Amino acid sequence: MKRILSLVLAGALCISAAAGLTACKDNTVTPGGDNATDDPKATAAATPVPIPTGPDIDPSSVDAITETWVATELTFESTKEYASRADRGDTKKMAMAEQAMIILDVTFTCEDGTSLTIPAFWDGENVFKVRFAPTRYGVWTYTTKCDTDDSLNGLTGKVGANTYKGNLDIYKHGFVTVKEGNKYFTYDDGTPFFYLGDTHWSMCSEEIDSPGAAGKKAGLPSHFQYIVDKRVSQGFTVYQSEPIGMKFDLTNGLTIADIKYFKETDRYYQYIAEKGLVHANAQFFFASALTKKNIDDPEYLQLISRYWVARFGAYPVMWTLAQEIDNDFYSERGDQKIYTFKDNPWVKIAEYNHKYDAYSHPLTGHQENAGMTTVTGKGTSKEASGGGISAFFSKEVTEATGHNWWGTQWSPSLNSQGSDAVPKDYWASPKVAINYESRYCYLWTKNFGARAQGWISLLNGFMGYGYGAIDIWFYNSTYNVNEESNDGIEKITPADKRTSWTEAIEFESGYQAGYLRYFMQQIEWWKLVPDFNDKVSFMPSSTETFYTCATIGSDTYVVYFYNKTTATGSVCNMIEGAEYNARWFNPRSCDFVDIGTVKATETSQKGTPAYSAPEKPDAEDWVLILTKK
Hints:
This protein is an alpha+beta fold. It is built from 14 helices and 32 strands. Mean pLDDT is about 90; it is low at about 1-5, about 15-25 and about 25-45.
C-alpha cells in the first residue's frame, strides 16, 4: 500500500486571495465580501458564530497541512488485483470497473470531537482518493474503512488544519448552508450569503488551456478562466453549471475510459473553488440522457451518486441534480416518457447525494419553467403534470433527500405589473427560493430585461437569481438562435443571438448584476418582506406604474420601478411622525441620488400614513429607497 498526500487548493488560494472585487464598472465603489462596503456602518450583517482559532500547527506533527474549509487530497493505492470490469451478475446492469464498486470511507475526527465520514473515489488503476475540507481548526486524525480490500482498510494518519488566512469569504466564513428557520442562504458561521449566479450549462466545452478562436481573435489570454475571473470582479458569487460537454459518459457505466475525463473536469471545479465562487452544479449527464436501463439499476445510480459527491463534495458546491427535472422534465409534452412526477428517479438520486454528503451542501432539483412547475402548482398552466406541484414538495421527500431550496425558472413580465401568483407560492414555502434561470441576455431579452428580472426577483421574495448571457450560458449553442424573440419590450434578432462570448462578457447587464448586489449589501436584504401586488406598503399612482416593493417592517422601503414613464406612487404603512432618508438608486450606473428627509404627510387608501414619492428622474428604471432615521 502506498499513501500520497497533497493539497489541491491551498497554493492557488494564496494567489486568488489577492484579487479584489470591483462591482461598479465606472464607479469607485469596490465592495469586498457579502457584507463589505466602503462605509462599515452602512452595512448591517447578522452576527457570525466565532470560529475557533489557534497558533499554526507544527507541520512535522502531521501528515499534511491545509487551512479550514480548503480541500486537501489524500491518495491511497491498493495492492489487490482487480478485473477491468466487474461481473455484476446481470447483463441488464451497467458496466463497471471492479475498482469503481469499492466502498472506501475515511473518517476524520478533530480534537474538539467533530467527526466527518467522507467517501473516497476511484481515480484509475488501483488508485483511490479522498478529498477533505476541514471545518474546524486543529489536528484531525483519520481512519480508513474498506470491507473488501485489506490493503485499504484501517489506515490512519493526521491532517493539520490552520485557520484560513486569505480574503475569500467562502473560506473565511465556511461553506454555504441553510440554517433552520431561514429563507436565505448563510455561510457556516451564520453570515448571510448573497446568491448571484452566472450560467454555464456547457462549462466543460469552454477552453481551459487556450482562449479558443473567439478569444484569440479578441486578444484575450484564456476562455474559461477569463470568464470566471471577470465574473468574480463583477461581484458574482455563484457559478451555475450542467454536465453538457463533459467527455465522460455515465449513461453506460463507470470504467477506466471515464477517469481521464473526470481528471479534466477536476480542473474546472478546482479553478472555480480557487476563485472563491460557490459551484451550483448538476450531476452526471443532461436530464434527457437518463435511460430506462439506468433507472432500473438503482445500485448503479447510488454508486455514481456516491462517486460524484466523493469527487466534488469537498469544494464549495450546491447540488442541482439535472436540467429541469422537477417535476418530471416535461413528461406532459413528451420530452421524456419513462417517468412522471410520481415516480421521478431524480428524487432517489437526491437521497443518495444527501446520504453521502458529509457537508450537507444545499440541494435542489432544477425546476421546469414556472408555467409547468412551482411549489404547489400555483401559477402553472392547465397542462402541467400533476397540477404543477413539485416532486420535492412533501415533508417525507424533503426529509429523505435533504432538499432545502428551490431552483426556480421564472420569467417575470417586463411590460406590465404581472401576476404575483408564482412568487407568492415560493414565499409561502419555508425553503430558500432562488430564481435560478430566467431570460438570457441577447437570447430572450436584452440588457434592460436581464437587469430588471434580477430586481423583480429579489423584491418578490427570491433570495438570489441566476444571470445568463448569450454564448456563455451555452457555448457555441445553436439553440433558438435562428428565430427572432421578443421579451415584451425589445426584439432580439438572429444577428443579436450570434454575439460572441467575448462581447457578451462585457454586457452592461453583467456589471449591473453586481450593482444589485452592492445595493442590497447596504441594507439587511435577508430581512426584506415582499409587498407583492397587495398595495399595503406601496400604492401606484396609475396603471402606468410597474413596480415591485419590499420592506423591512416600517423602517426600510425598497421600490423598483420598471415602467417606461416617470410615474411612481405612494409609500404606505409608514410610522407617523418618523423621519426617513429618501434616495434614488440608479441600477444602470450604481449611483445614489439624494432626495432628502421626508415624512408621511398623507393617508393611504387603507388608512395608513403615506408619502407621495416624486416622479422618477427619467423614464428608465429606478429604485426608490426610504430608511427611517
